[in-house]
Amino acid sequence: MIDLKQYEVWFVTGSQHLYGPKTLEQVAAHSQEIAQALSASALIPVKVVFKPVLTTPEAIHTLCLEANAAANCVGLITWMHTFSPAKMWIAGLTALQKPFAHLHTQYNAEIPWAEIDMNFMNLNQAAHGDREFGFIGSRLRLNRKVIVGHWQDAEVQASLGTWARAACAWYDLQGAKVARFGDNMREVAVTEGDKVEAQRRMGYAVYGYGVGDLVKVVQQVSDAEIDQLVGAYYDEYEVAPELRPGGTEVKSLREAARIEVGMRHFLKDGNFKAFTTTFEDLYGLAQLPGLAVQRLMADGYGFGAEGDWKTSALVHAMKVMAAGLKGGVSFMEDYTYHFSPAGDKVLGAHMLEVCPSIASGKSRLEIHPLSIGGKADPARLVFDTLTGPAVNASIMDMGNRFRMVVNEVEVVPTDAPLPKLPVARALWIPQPNLKVAAAAWILAGGAHHTGFSQAVTAAHLQDFADMADMELLLIGKGTDLAEFKKEIRWNDVYYLIARGL
Ligand code: MN
After folding, report:
1. What gap in Å lies between CA 441 and CA 384, rounded to an integer?
2. CA 437, CA 425: separation in Å to the nearest integer?
């Protein structure tokens, strides 16, 4: 579903005519070489396309308009090999609607001590040329990423790769459609929000459907489609005895398959990238979709439970950022705590809907009662989660802006097996510790629903938030609660002034 190879970033070098054609030819040749190297780098998931060196305000403006209109161009990498007087960039950068990363690099790495002369100095002057370009970005108050270092440096390429992944997610989200089956869950507050503002700020639209609209499609699913999908379940998972052929619960598994096929048809036909359900409203659906949701998430769909369209869109965006990386992305909920002198931990899970892309091994296909809601027993995949660093991210509507909160966590093995827990789960230690992290999260108004990932990092999310011009509060190793409270207060003032009415 998600292929980042289709996307490109344009490598744009600024200069001017002052230096004469010979120097400009060298600038172009160097830029071409750098663009090719970045394009070939395994750390950068997209094509990096060289664009002719820009030397006039007209050429810059035209290039920016072309970038706005170009399909699959997710952003620009800008670099001033020489000096490019930045008044030339005002019109272009003002018109530019795609994100850009300012690569503050230099063609040569080290100073050629014995050879260096004034010609060399005049060609290799990004050290001050890029500062002139930086000024106009700041003067125009443009949110962009600045990456410093030699272009062959793996850290620089990784940083560009992170930014490119965020840019792909941002591009993908523009015009994206989220299907919302049923409405919000009872009186839950954090899952609500301004969908008009979300569409304006983040680019995606939420389409509401009665559950009956989905039920109609589910009822049309053929037995042959169900047979085929149940066969795939048997191939892919460790299956509980009662769900195996001839078992007592096969009928229920076939119902789960019917729901999955129906949902796939619905989402594909409507060109949706994400969806929500709510267990309050299952009108005509025999079960709460569990297995279907887990498998659709594994295929790249965003998901939010209980009508949570913001988390659903975020989970999909994180899946785009994570495409091709080790570790998965899932909808998640902080479920219950382990308070212990040996270290406080969080057990994350949901009623059913955790994505198997984060699993540490083969998933088990099981069936259990739902225990709340009074609906039929649904099938679900049960697994533990890959250990190691991960993030939880959440987006809230604060009334005058959207806020993203990110917590860096460490997924750890469970202290003991959990033989009676019938859902997929992840156990983690939040950074810097549970006491500070949870207090900060709560003060920030962070939701109980999150996008969880072992592949996406705080850096991806920071780049993404910058592209959206969105507030981001990071809770990590260095978080100090007193400073964090001040940051929240200062941000309240900043966003009020920066955005005005
Ligand atoms: Mn929930």
Report:
1. 25
2. 20
Q: On the CB side of 243, how many CA atoms lie within 13 Å of its CA?
A: 26
Q: Quote the ligand 1 centre to 276 CA distance (angstroms).
A: 11
Q: Residue 456 is encoded by which pair of tokens?
A: 């996406």
Q: What is the pLDDT of residue 236?
A: 96
What residues are paired with 238 via a beta bridge? 364
Question: Rounded to 10 degrees, what is the CA torsion of 450, 456, 460, 462?
Answer: 30
Tokens of 375: 């609906």
* Distance from the alpha carbon of residue 417 to the mean position of ligand 1, in angstroms: 24
Q: How does pLDDT run across 393-416, given as a tens digit for each residue?
A: 999 999 999 999 999 999 999 999
User: Going edge to edge, which strands form the sheet with 145-148?
Assistant: 47-50, 8-13, 73-79, 100-104, 145-148
Ligand 1 centroid – CA 188 distance (Å)? 10
Q: Residue for token digits 């989905």? A: 214
The rounded distance, in Å, linking the Cα atoms of 126 and 355 is: 46
pLDDT digits (tens, 9 = 90+) for 125-149: 999 999 999 999 999 999 999 999 9
Quote the ligand 1 centre to 185 CA distance (angstroms). 9
Distance 450 CA to ligand 1 centre (A): 9
The reported pTM is: 0.97
Q: How far is the CA of 187 from the centre of ligand 1 (A)?
A: 13
**Cα separation of 188 and 483, whole Å?**
30
Tell me the torsion sign for CA atoms 3, 314, 362, 364: negative
